[in-house]
Amino acid sequence: MSPEPSPGTRPQADREAAPGRIVLLTTSHRVAPGLLSWPAWQALRTADAVLCADGAHPQLPYLREAGIAVAQESPTAQDLVDACAGGRTVVVVATGEGEPALTDGLARLAGSGRVAMPELELLPASYDLPGARLLDLVQVMDRIRAECPWSSRQTHEGLAKYGIEEAYELVEAIEAGDREELREELGDVLLQVVFHSRIAEEDPDAPFSVDDVAGGIVAKLIHRHPHVFGDEQAETPEDVKEHWLRTKAEEKQRTSVTDGVPLGQPGLALAAKLASRTRTAGLDVPLPRGEGIGYELLALAVRAEADGTDPEAALRAAARAYRDAIKAAEGPRAADAGEEDEG
User: Fold this and answer.
1) How far, in whole angstroms, is CA 19 from its chain's centroid?
2) What's the pLDDT at 127?
3) What is the mean pLDDT of residues 194-202?
4) Is pLDDT at 14 greater than 70 in this prediction?
5) Which in 1, 24, 84, 323 has the greatest CB count within 10 A?
6) Is the model's pLDDT at 343 over the cut of 50?
7) Rounded CA gap, 111 and 18, in Å?
8) Which residue pairs from 139-143 have beta carbons closer than 8 angstroms and sit at least 24 positions apart in sequence?
9) What's the average model confidence in pLDDT over 151-168?
10) What pLDDT is recorded for position 183?
11) CB of 33 within 8 A of CB of 72?
């Protein structure tokens, strides 16, 4: 079999009869304009025509700077097929919506069987990086802060209770093993971070942004993981914890192992945290003696922590079992009460 002739050596009649090629070029608004893939630049430079319906498309200044002529046109599907006649290649720089009307029209033409359709190629010119949707969240939050009557008046102090609520709802989703609920609650917690960061931008004395928040935690993670980003070695989780506590102490310049333990957290969790700090530091501190349930609960919490049990989570699990028992016990009576109310 003889090789396929190149386009330049095909007979004139064949070239004129060729249906041509449509390239739908898509880009991500989450990537800086002008940062396109090499196949995208090749398609743009070799195209017979480049079209874009949006005259304000962010890519256009960079394409024109590269010497690529872009016509602002909104062709119909038939117009585009006609423009490809004679083996021509037309690149369509897609708008943010992805040109659904155009692609639907091309699909209808192809389905009719009456039109010699050009080759259609969907060419992503840029791809979202992991985490790119966070940029959308920042933009949405910025607009809500500026335009929403409720959100525009919120303060750090006013939102504090929601942060606590969302954190507990996240814990509940984790303990319930509900993956869909977990995803949603993580989003709610993330919203609190972005919301507070947006409010912080307006502080007249010490403003900071979500980029400052992210930059700070990135620097902290790198510093506290010298076994990942540096030359230190860590073979076990215990080694990692030792690195973490040492670098944390250096950063905070703390004088006590109890520094940084929030005293406002639930009592069992607080007791377990203090016990963990004490045990990790190798301190032998006897439990205070006293009368009453508080000291008994303290001893139970310390014992649970030493056994590797989270006493707060354990009590919540037991409380849920208690709740189920209560509902089972009151079920018939609750149903009867409901019937009486209806009567």
Assistant:
1) 43
2) 84
3) 97
4) no
5) 84
6) no
7) 19
8) 141/191, 141/194, 141/195, 141/198, 142/198
9) 94
10) 96
11) no
* Token duo for residue 101: 């009307």
Q: Are 222 and 229 in contact (CB under 8 A)?
A: yes
How far apart, in whole angstroms, are the C-alpha atoms of residue 341 and residue 322? 27
How many other C-beta atoms lie within 10 A of the C-beta of residue 265?
A: 14
- For residue 337, the model assigns a pLDDT of 53
Would you say the C-alpha torsion 153, 164, 326, 184 has a positive or negative sign? positive
Q: What's the CA gap between 244 and 240, in Å, rounded?
A: 6
In which order are the strands placed within the sheet that holds 49-52?
71-72, 49-52, 89-93, 21-26, 119-124
According to DSSP, the β-strands at 89-93 and 49-52 are: parallel
Cβ neighbours around 290 below 10 Å, total = 9
Helix 133-147 to helix 179-200 angle (10° resolution) is 60
Q: What is the CA radius of gyration of the chain?
A: 32
Which among 74, 132, 128, 76 is positioned nearest to 104, based on CA atoms? 76
CA atoms within 13 A on the CB side of 198: 22
How much is the pLDDT for 4? 45
Query: What does the angle CA 50 – CA 56 – CA 62 come to, to the nearest 5 degrees?
Result: 60
Percent of the chain predicted with pLDDT > 90: 59
304 pLDDT exceeds 80? yes
39-44: long-range contacts, CB 8 A cutoff, minimum separation 24: 39/123, 40/123, 40/124, 40/125, 40/126, 41/66, 43/89, 43/91, 43/123, 44/68, 44/91
The predicted structure's pLDDT at residue 196:
97
Collect all residues with Cβ–Cβ distance below 8 Å to 305 and sequence separation of at least 6. Answer: 271, 272, 275, 276, 279, 311
Mention every residue, 6+ apart, whose C-beta is less than 8 A from residue 16. Answer: 85, 86, 87
Q: Burial level of 201, CB count in 10 A (0-12/13-18/19+)?
A: middle
Give φ, ψ of 322 to 5 degrees.
-65, -40
Largest pairwise CA distance in the chain? 103
pTM of the model: 0.67
